[in-house]
Amino acid sequence: MHLFHGLINSYGVFTACSHVPQTTVRGVADSSLTPLLEDIADISVDSEVSLAQLTTLHVGAQPRLTVRCTTPQAVVDTVTRLDAAGVPLLILGGGSNLLVADDEPLDLVVVRIECAEVSLDPHSGVLRAQAGAVWDDVVDTAVAAGLGGIECLSGIPGSAGATPVQNVGAYGVEIADVLLRVELLDRATGQVSWVPASDLDLAYRYSNLKFTSRGVVLAIELQLTPEGLSAPLRFGELARRLEAQGPGERRPVAAVRQAVLELRQAKGMVLIPGDHDTWSAGSFFTNPVVDPQHASDIQDKVRRLRGDEDAERMPQFPAGENQLKLSAAWLIDRAGFAKGYPGEGAPARLSTRHTLALTNRGSAHTADIVALARTIRDGVKTEFGVVLEPEPIWLGVHI
Ligand SMILES: Cc1cc2nc3c(=O)[nH]c(=O)nc-3n(C[C@H](O)[C@H](O)[C@H](O)COP(=O)(O)OP(=O)(O)OC[C@H]3O[C@@H](n4cnc5c(N)ncnc54)[C@H](O)[C@@H]3O)c2cc1C
Fold first, then answer.
1. Which of 33, 114, 124, 370 is 20 to 30 A removed from 49 (C-alpha atoms)?
2. How many angstroms separate the Cα of 144 from the Cα of each of 141, 228, 252?
3. What's the cofactor (predicted)?
């Protein structure tokens, strides 16, 4: 801890945290919850905000309360009190990986994590971020300090604390590649401790924090590299963009961040407020991971439906022992769902720039997005016999 206190002073604290303990209540608070929360410092309580205002799909009903926590201690106090009282909770960061029901008020309290300090040591390459730090600000900070390892994760929306939850990844890099440990509030015991990354079962778009109430991430610690170079380029599209000579080449971190942001922007994968292609939860389905025989069966189906040329182009990448990862976006497209499906005027459509993003065109309800998800999933299953699994967390709805 001494190391980081020193470094915070030397390199500055990038923070949205309040240093003055305060509690604010807006709206007509749920009176049964008020006594539980009233003496907790560094929170503000809002009973009027809806999940549509807090999520990037812009759908979702109003919870009983939203508690905004600007320090880790406020998160601990709020979550442990509400857990002890048996009040259902939703831990919320940037709301960019959530699909929430909107047909009736939600019987839960949203705990929004807003503590956002970031500190780093440019010599050792160790970076620490509180859970509420905006993830892309963390990447920007690392890149500005010449630290490599997370530049390929530029532009992913949401908070630092959520990055281990589904082991975020993009352009050949996952947070698992650099995550040392997380500071975790264990919701069963109320204890806070640093938990090594190896204890999180990190895998493709998965950890044992996803779909569970195991704990709340209060901070993350990353081991980055201090030479000013990126992680080895592993993703063909990015390597080509940077005119890399061979696989595994490393490039200056700032150049890689810039290239990633440009590639993502072209696909509508960077949040822009008025751009409905970005009113999404990012990739709506995970890429199917199948054994080679299954992949070959799917390729035969593509051959019958689309011909030899298309079948030979079917993307498939090694994904661990005897496993291949297919492209959900490619399968969706080949199943007949083009970008923008089902077309102008529909409240929920595929992004006009990426077939893997389901988007709200401004007036969609949760049911519109769920109906589109079912149509896509069923269409891909009918054509290729592959069941696509949703990537975001679904709350109060089922596919
Ligand atoms: C345009 C767009 C592009 C995207 N691109 C990518 C991409 O390239 N790669 C990728 O992997 N994802 C991508 N995503 C998905 C999403 O941005 C990530 O999953 C992100 O990490 C979610 O962060 P969040 O803070 O918004 O989480 P939220 O949506 O707020 O929460 C998601 C889940 O994590 C839990 N959670 C949040 N914070 C914590 C915490 N501190 N402790 C414990 N649990 C917590 C929540 O309870 C919920 O279950 C994209 C999303 C969008 C909208």
1. 370
2. 5, 9, 11
3. FAD
Tell me: the pLDDT tens digits for 313-331? 999 999 989 999 999 999 9
Residues 258 and 280 in one domain: no
Measured from CB, residues less than 6 Å from any atom of ligand 1 are 56, 90-98, 113, 131, 156-159, 161-163, 165-166, 168-170, 209, 216-217, 269, 271, 278, 280-282, 393
Residue 306 belongs to a domain? yes
Tell me which of 223, 238, 266 is where a domain ends.
266
Q: Whose CA is nearest to atom 34 of ligand 1?
A: 162
Rounded distance from Cα 94 to ligand 1 centre (Å): 7
Give the tens place of pLDDT for each residue, 351-369: 999 999 999 999 999 999 9
* Banded pLDDT at 32 (limits 50, 70, 90): confident
Q: Whose CA is nearest to atom 12 of ligand 1?
A: 168
Compute the mean pLDDT over every residue in the chain, rounded to the nearest whole number.
Answer: 92
Whole-angstrom distance, CA of residue 147 vs CA of residue 127: 9
The answer to whether residues 127 and 242 belong to one domain is yes
Domain of 258, CATH number, reads 3.30.465.10
Is there a single domain that holds both residue 125 and residue 260?
A: yes
What total number of domains does the chain contain?
Answer: 3
Domain with 365 in it: 276-395
